[in-house]
Design a protein that fits this description.
- With 330 residues, the chain is an alpha/beta fold.
- It has a single domain, classed as Purple Acid Phosphatase, chain A, domain 2.
- It contains eight helices and 16 strands.
- The strands form two sheets. It has an eight-stranded mixed β-sheet, with helices on one face. An eight-stranded mixed β-sheet has the order 5-4-3-2-13-14-15-16, covered by helices on one side.
- The two termini are 29 Å apart.
- Bound molecules: zinc ion.
- The site of zinc ion has 6 residues, from loops.
- Zinc ion binds next to loops.
- It catalyses: a phosphate monoester + H2O = an alcohol + phosphate.
- This is Purple acid phosphatase.
- It is found in: Secreted.
- Keywords: Glycoprotein, Hydrolase, Iron, Metal-binding, Secreted, Signal, Zinc.
């Protein structure tokens, strides 16, 4: 099969990664990725992974390589908490190699990795993860705070969710969060919510997928992130978002909503999982919960998406399809 290339357009020399200029409706960074020649798009989603191969990170990576090859994926999405326990110490932190490039070595995974930041990443040098220097170390690394990826049939809205969470500001415990580039916080959040709302409204993509680190609906250890439920969820509901995809809870989870068509997916099983951590949830919304390691694959066309959760052995745990024509989940 002919591999789909990814289209990247240079605009000036400031960024080594190719990007499109932001339109007037949004201040968010914009990237573009082509679909495959047959018009479909395939990708994997993994979160909460960077532990130098420990806690089955290497085993999950190996199975991602197998499934990535099978689906001929276009790219990988990381839902954050990229490097434990406290992000990167700087651009030269060897954890970048030990937890990323040395682990995800399968040929099928040598595609762009679109990353968001998690709360653990904010405990280190955040700007190191955003630095073009990392991209020079490995071209597949793509990380911005918040950005938009246009993949023709689907548009992805990556949202920096850590600054929403009050606790990290009011009770940071022993951790030192790196809020450079975030403060003043109120202004940062106001602009971010406004920009995401504008970009969603302007989107004509068939699929609208929002990616953030923190949960909106979750029965996991962290549970619901009330700040996102209040500030982000109404925007997603008002703009016909199809999927909200997150990490943070170290599990695999699929929740539907009785209030909207949005489906909530947690893919936070990239390494250490939290066995037995589950709270009760409305049975009519909870479609699947797995408290072990694993990852998600998505294969989509203009009118159908097939989603599959795999465990650490590459076994299928849960799969479902969404039809755009029928507007329901099968
Ligand atoms: Zn987290």
């Amino acid at each position: 099969m002919v591999k789909a290339g990814y289209r990247l357009l240079f605009l000036g020399g400031l960024l080594s990664w190719l990007c499109l200029a932001s339109p007037a409706t949004s201040e968010l960074q914009r990237l573009q990725h082509r679909v495959k020649p047959d018009g479909s798009l395939s990708f994997l989603v993994v979160g909460d992974w960077g532990r130098e191969g420990n806690y089955n990170q290497s085993e999950v990576a190996s199975q991602m390589g197998v499934i990535g090859e099978k689906l001929d994926i276009n790219f990988v999405i990381s839902t954050g908490d990229n490097f434990y326990d406290c992000g990167l110490t700087g651009e030269d932190d060897p954890a970048f190699f030990k937890s990323f490039t040395d682990i995800y070595t399968a040929p099928s995974l040598q595609k762009p990795w679109y990353n968001v930041l998690g709360n653990h990443d904010y405990r280190g040098d955040v700007e190191a993860q955003l630095s073009p220097v990392l991209k020079e170390k490995h071209s597949k690394w793509v990380c911005f705070r918040s950005f938009i990826l246009n993949a023709e049939i689907a548009e992805f809205f990556f949202v920096d969710t850590t600054p929403f969470v009050n606790e990290y500001f009011t009770d940071p415990r022993q951790y030192n969060y790196d809020w450079k580039g975030v403060e003043p916080r109120d202004e940062y959040l106001f602009n971010l919510v406004k920009d995401v709302d504008s970009a969603l409204k302007a989107s004509s993509a068939k699929w609208k997928i929002v990616v953030g680190h923190h949960t909106i609906k979750s029965a996991g250890q962290h549970g619901v992130t009330v700040e996102l439920e209040k500030q982000l969820l109404p925007i997603l509901e008002a703009n016909d978002v199809d999927l909200y995809v997150n990490g943070h809870d170290h599990c695999l989870q699929h929740i539907t909503s009785t209030d909207s068509d949005i489906q909530f997916i947690t893919s936070g099983g990239g390494s250490q999982a939290w066995r037995g951590k589950i709270s009760s949830w409305k049975p009519e919304e909870m479609k699947f919960y797995y408290d072990g390691q694993g990852f998600l694959s998505v294969n989509m066309t203009g009118d159908r998406a097939d989603l599959v959760f795999y465990d650490v052995f590459g076994q299928v745990l849960h799969k479902w399809s969404i039809s755009k024509q029928l507007h329901d989940a099968a």
